[in-house]
Structure formats: structure tokens, C-alpha cells
UniProtKB/TrEMBL annotation:
Protein name: DUF1269 domain-containing protein
Organism: Ornithinibacillus bavariensis
The organism's place on the tree of life at top rank: Bacteria
Keywords carried by this UniProt record: Membrane, Transmembrane, Transmembrane helix
Membrane-spanning residues: 84-107
Length: 159
């Protein structure tokens, strides 16, 4: 059977391979495939498929709501009415929040926006007997594998 796992290229990977060899898995039954690093740069705006955990518009929208509510309540006493003044205040609040985020991100080089350095990934494939699958999985998980899977050929849920 084959056991597939993913590791960051680190000493943990080397220790896992050494431990597998000590447990009786031969070198010809261990196959490591390095994955090339991505050259993609950090984007200011997140998409639905790619987010870095730092929202660019949260402060802007919250400030727009807050100032829109205040503008609406003050608009009852002003000439153009509450709807127009609420929209004007919401636009002003959104603009202030948006400019604030641009200043924080662009000018101060906010540390939360820096890219986290991810070590290159390695796919490790281990060929072993069916009786040894659990011990191989345990060794891989023990040495910080990001994921471990043993596909079964007759199992329809993997397809």
C-alpha cells in the first residue's frame, strides 16, 4: 500500500525518513517529490479565492455605517433630508476609512501585511505492507506532516 503525505522541507522531514528506515522501510520504497515555490506577489485586494486574513475594507465599511447613521439622524434637521445626508455621511466615512487603510498599509509597511515565509513543500510517498500502514501514518504525523492519506483502491469516496 502507498501512504501519501505532505511536509514543509525541514529537519522534521529528514527525521521522518530516518525513522521510517529504522522501522524497516527500505530507501527504494520512500519517494520524495519537492514542489517548486510560487513567485506570486502580495496583493492589496483579496479575492474570493485568495485571502491573507487582513481585510482591507472592514474599517472603511464600519466607519461608513457609523457616519451614515449619524448623518441620517442629523439630516432630519437639515434642508436635504435624512436620506441624502445619510448617503453623504456614509461616503465621507467610507473615504476616511479607506484612506486610513491605505496609509497604514502603504506608508507604515504594516507587519501583518508582510508575506509569511512558507518553506517549500515536499510530497512523501511511502510504499509499505498493509500491516505497517498505521505505524507509518503514526510516524509521519509524529514528525509534523501537514497531511497524511492512504487511498484505498476499492474505496469510492476518494474518486
Amino acid at each position: 500500500m502507498q501512504v501519501f503525505s505532505i511536509f514543509e522541507h525541514s529537519p522534521s522531514l529528514e527525521l521522518a525518513i530516518t525513522k521510517l528506515e529504522q522501522e524497516g522501510v527500505t530507501k527504494k520504497n520512500i519517494f520524495a517529490i519537492p514542489i517548486n515555490e510560487s513567485d506570486e506577489t502580495l496583493k492589496i485586494f483579496d479575492s474570493i479565492h485568495d485571502a491573507d486574513g487582513f481585510s482591507f475594507l472592514d474599517k472603511s465599511l464600519a466607519l461608513a455605517v457609523a457616519t451614515g447613521v449619524v448623518g441620517t439622524s442629523l439630516g432630519f434637521n437639515l434642508t436635504w433630508g435624512p436620506i441624502i445626508w445619510g448617503l453623504i455621511a456614509a461616503f465621507i466615512g467610507f473615504s476616511i476609512g479607506f484612506l486610513w487603510n491605505i496609509c497604514v498599509i502603504k506608508l507604515t509597511k504594516n507587519s501583518r501585511r508582510t508575506e509569511r515565509k512558507i518553506l517549500p513543500l515536499v510530497i512523501l510517498v511511502v510504499e509499505c505492507e498493509k500491516e505497517n500502514v498505521k505505524s507509518v501514518e503514526f510516524i509521519l504525523k509524529e514528525h509534523k506532516a501537514l497531511g497524511v492519506n492512504t487511498p484505498h483502491l476499492n474505496d469510492d469516496e476518494n474518486f
